[in-house]
Design brief:
Helix content: 25-40%
Structural class: alpha+beta
Strand order of the largest sheet: 1-2-3-4
Number of domains: 2
Distance between the termini: 129 Å
Number of helices: 2
């Protein structure tokens, strides 16, 4: 009879201990389950895409500019190709007519991105953030910020101003002439026989 209370006491002592171990195991199991689920959510797609990734192949790519910094702000698809508006700090390469301090720079390309013509707009101080919009007359309006008050920029109120201007027809006419000349040259080259002699 004396052993019975001792046995009951040991059960009473073991029961809370086993209960706390069960809660701890359940808690640990839940944590590891969450870790595994999160790992599968984030790691599985990465591993899967690594195995299936293909190298990027461009149909074509081009670079435009000079020896200093150029940046593009907007690209518009036109009937002749693309018109890119941006800024430039160069005065060489494809950049001509640079006014100094950073100019608005427009680049016109054909449909394959081949450089056709470009023009700088601005003054001797800084211009930046050029944005271009087509208007209903098949011409373009360019606007951005300027610190200049000379060359293409007039009426600056002091320090930095907004500037807006319509691109003159000469720009568009120059492009049309250049495209026509390129088409004539292409036809002439295609007309040359394989022997290289014109008959």
């Amino acid at each position: 009879m004396a052993k019975s209370p001792l046995y009951i006491d040991s059960l009473a002592f073991r029961a809370p201990l086993e209960k706390s171990r069960g809660v701890s195991l359940l808690f640990i199991t839940l944590i590891w389950t969450r870790v595994l689920i999160i790992s599968m959510i984030f790691l599985f797609p990465m591993l899967r895409s690594k195995g299936q990734s293909q190298p990027v192949v461009f149909e074509w790519q081009q670079c435009y500019g000079g020896s200093d910094w150029e940046g593009g702000d907007r690209l518009i698809k036109t009937s002749a190709g693309y018109l890119i508006s941006g800024s430039t700090y160069s005065n060489d390469g494809q950049v001509t007519g640079y006014h100094g301090g950073g100019d608005f720079w427009l680049v016109w390309t054909d449909s394959m991105g081949n450089y056709l013509f470009s023009k700088c707009y601005g003054g001797s101080s800084s211009e930046s953030g050029s944005y271009i919009l087509p208007n209903s007359n098949n011409e373009f309006v360019i606007f951005g910020g300027t610190y200049s008050n000379n060359w293409n920029i007039t009426g600056n109120h002091g320090d930095g101003d907004y500037w807006i201007g319509r691109i003159e027809r000469l720009f568009k006419i120059h492009i049309e002439i250049r495209l026509t000349i390129n088409r004539i040259i292409d036809r002439w080259i295609n007309a040359i026989p394989d022997s290289g002699n014109l008959s």
